[in-house]
Amino acid sequence: MGLSTHVLDTMHGCPAAGMRVSLYATEGEKATLIKSLTLNHDGRTDAPLFDNASLRVGTYRLTFDVAAYFKARGVVLPEPNFLNRVSLDFGIAQVDQHYHVPLLVSPWSYSTYRGS
User: Fold this and answer.
1) Which one of 16, 78, 99, 107 has the fewest beta carbons within 10 angstroms of its own beta carbon?
2) CB 47: neighbour CB atoms within 10 A?
3) Range of 88's domain?
């Protein structure tokens, strides 16, 4: 399956439908945008971020537009926001494996792990 992501809104107890996500390839401090997309009704992408054939060894960054998502849901956030965008830097070492990078997020906290 390549690379996938899934976002759960822990404040409302539901998938983060409509959240914007960007995928970057990174090399040191340099980040090159690969794609930006909006999560579907299940808080997932409609297709893998990379399929098996496109997955490459390297370092990457997923950036989730957390503040915009919660503001769109009507959550009143302080200015400046505690979390604006959440960026997760990770590496892909084995292209024959599936890399799933889920995010559990509220306006004040987040966690992630390598899923299956």
Assistant:
1) 78
2) 10
3) 3-112
